[in-house]
Design brief:
By secondary structure, the chain is of the alpha+beta class. It has helices spanning 3-21, 113-117, and strands at residues 25-29, 38-46, 50-57, 62-69, 74-78, 87-90, 95-98, 103-110, 121-130.
């Protein structure tokens, strides 16, 4: 193999690893104030980073998720232990459902790959409610 080709391959592998290694998932446990059934939180991230909110809820309760801010802000909602989202939304597209299981739910905020690739910044506020 030619040295220039080998060097190109090594650099390409190194660059793709370093890009993936920089992706950050910020974990945020959610707690409601005494007597409250919802909370509004603000956040920001850029590129392929994301924010994961976790909150406990019971089967049969209703959860509502609303997000505002950057047009790039999207979210998915996951039931306890699930790898497939129950649903999701974006700015202007809220999510509401009766919860199927008791346990810790995850709400993951992210941006689509095209804007993440450009390293765009996402500023948002998210309202999480459980009744």
């Amino acid at each position: 193999m030619k040295p220039a080709l080998l060097l190109s391959l090594v650099l390409a592998c190194g660059l793709s690893s370093s890009v993936q290694a920089q992706d950050t998932v910020t974990q945020v446990p959610v707690h409601f104030a005494k007597g409250a059934s919802s909370v509004e939180l603000k956040g920001r991230f850029s590129g392929y980073d994301s924010v994961r909110y976790t909150l406990g809820a019971q089967a049969g309760q209703s959860m509502t998720v609303r997000i505002q801010g950057s047009r790039n802000a999207n979210f998915n909602v996951f039931a306890p232990g699930a790898s497939t989202a129950l649903g999701g939304g974006s700015v202007g597209s809220n999510w509401n459902a009766v919860l199927p299981d008791s346990g810790e739910y995850r709400v993951e905020v992210y941006q689509m790959r095209a804007s993440a690739r450009r390293g765009e910044k996402v500023e948002y506020s998210i309202e999480l409610g459980v009744k």
